[in-house]
Automatic annotation (TrEMBL):
It comes from the Bacteria. Transmembrane segments: none annotated. Residues 410-490 form the AMP-binding enzyme C-terminal domain. Gene3D superfamilies: 3.30.300.30, N-terminal domain of ligase-like (3.40.50.12780). GO terms for biological process: fatty acid metabolic process. This is Acyl-CoA synthetase.
Length: 503
């Protein structure tokens, strides 16, 4: 795999990124990355320092990532759908030396983090005491005199709902060194080295679409970047640009399948070699329909911010419906409730080997995730007799809605701040479009009066929107006076599900 930096030197006119009709070549991309690297060095950033980004889909994400990766810096992409206080927490927690944001998102951070971040940059019109990205990058574009491997530091929610950074140690290596392992992986799933065309239709702040697209950029593919997912736009882009690969979640599949037959039939999808999907369990009927339409090009994988567990081809899934793949038995194992390795047919927590990491500022959580040389993100599954892995639960209480993680404790905490809520439990309920939808079971405070249940739902919804990101808000509210808590004060989520299913 050549790597974007080498392509910028050897094939500078090759298209690297196409977005909204504008093309950035590999030469232009690497030139901008070099400008950023040299600017970071001029500011005094040293190995292990942090650059954070609150970024929309666009060329800047890849410029900043390439710069950090060759400068020995951590890059922290932040979920753009988070509310202002949530963004502020991450920026402070990671101790960012530089924060770069798109102007459209600046109101989430302006006036909140100036005391914490020395260097603040806006892509677009910059407020007072902030630099413009255009001016910030007006620096020498030669290859940095000193280059060393940096790393992404992704944030993943903890069991309390507070995000935690997954930080891997800096290693003494060149920026190109990890690429040697990535090339064979893509070859094994059917993706050749360039000149492929990869469609980016999911948020690049997420580890999966951001990471996959970056790896394919290093392989010489051209990225066609969309600002977001619109089913008809995605399908027509696949057809018009002869897209060879993309990364989606099951919700995207369902939206494509829901398009009118006339739209579907008018688009040529024969160019697609691979459609990666992850982020949530894919309903079997949805996956079969996509296979019938696109052919045997679906590649599912199980992974998390902590690491990759396994990969499943279309052929394997058709032979073993519901599996997420057949992992290397020396690299993945299940740990039963008794603490021992679970045999085939019995459920257990999935543990896997991955590169060393720590949860930033949380040694207890780090230690709890380890079992010898294995680690876990909390998923539960089982093996069949042939060694194929099946997911039984995507963590005990975690809700996966549209491929995005929602932790009940965080939503419950927001609702409990409303004066009309005495107690609350939040669960995920199966949903044909979203995989799961967020449902809140609420016990009202004594004496609290509302005009109607609909009026109360509207008030709670507005309250939650002001506290946390919109994708975390409950899509359904159920009111009860008999709230299911045990004598120990624990919520019975099973009883909450029974209440929800009885509505």
């Amino acid at each position: 795999m050549p790597g974007a930096w080498l392509l910028g030197q050897r094939d500078p006119s090759r298209p690297a990124i196409v977005m909204e009709g504008e093309t950035t070549t590999f030469g232009e991309l690497v030139s901008k990355a070099n400008q950023l690297s040299n600017k970071f060095a001029d500011l005094g950033l040293t190995r292990g320092d942090v650059v954070a980004g609150l970024l929309l889909n666009g060329t800047e994400f890849y410029e900043i990532t390439l710069a950090c990766t060759q400068s020995g810096l951590y890059f922290v992409p932040i979920n753009t759908h988070l509310a202002g206080p949530e963004v502020e927490y991450i920026v402070r927690d990671c101790d960012a030396s530089v924060l770069i944001v798109h102007a459209e998102l600046a109101d989430k951070v302006v006036g909140r983090i100036e005391d914490a971040v020395p260097h603040r940059v806006v892509i677009g019109s910059a407020p007072a005491d902030w630099s413009s990205y255009e001016a910030f990058t007006l620096f020498a574009d030669e290859t940095p005199a000193t280059r060393s491997l940096g790393s992404a530091m992704m944030y993943t929610s903890g069991t309390t709902g507070r995000p935690k950074g997954v930080r891997r140690p800096m290693i003494d290596a060149t920026p190109e060194s990890p690429l040697q392992a990535t090339g064979p992986f893509f070859g094994n799933v059917g993706i050749p080295h360039g000149p492929g065309r990869h469609l980016v239709c999911s948020p690049v702040y997420h580890a999966a679409p951001g990471g996959v697209s970056l790896s394919l950029l290093h392989a010489g593919h051209t990225l066609y970047v969309l600002p977001g997912f619109d089913a008809e736009t995605v399908l027509r882009t696949i057809s018009d640009k002869a897209i060879t690969s993309s990364h989606m979640v099951p919700t995207h599949f369902q939206r494509l399948l829901d398009l009118p037959a006339g739209v579907r039939d008018s688009c040529d999808i024969s160019s697609v070699d691979v459609l990666f999907h992850a982020g949530a369990p894919c309903p079997p009927a949805t996956k079969r329909a996509m296979i019938d339409w696109f052919g045997p090009v679906l590649v599912e994988y199980l992974g998390s911010t902590e690491g990759l567990v396994c990969v499943c081809s279309t052929a394997e899934w058709l032979e073993h419906p519901g599996t997420v793949g057949r992992p290397d038995p020396s690299a993945v194992m299940l740990r039963g409730l008794d603490g021992e390795q679970a045999p085939p047919g019995e459920e257990g927590t999935i543990y896997f080997k991955t590169s060393p990491f720590e949860y930033l500022g949380d040694p207890e959580k780090t230690a709890a995730a380890q079992w010898g040389e294995f680690t876990t993100s909390g998923d539960v599954g089982r093996f069949d007799d042939d060694g194929y892995l099946y997911i039984l639960d995507r963590r005990v209480d975690l809700i996966l809605t549209g491929g995005v993680n929602v932790y009940p404790a965080e939503v419950e905490g927001a609702l409990l701040e409303h004066p009309g809520v005495a107690d609350v439990g939040v669960i995920g309920v199966a949903d044909p479009e979203w995989g799961q939808r967020v449902v809140a079971v609420v016990q009202l405070a004594s004496g609290f009066i509302s005009d109607s249940d609909e009026d109360l739902r509207a008030k709670l919804d507005q309250h939650v929107r002001e506290q946390i990101a919109g994708f975390k808000r409950p899509r359904e509210y159920i009111f009860t006076q008999d709230f299911p808590r045990s004598a120990a004060g624990k919520v019975s989520r099973q009883k909450l599900r029974e209440l929800a299913n009885g509505q």
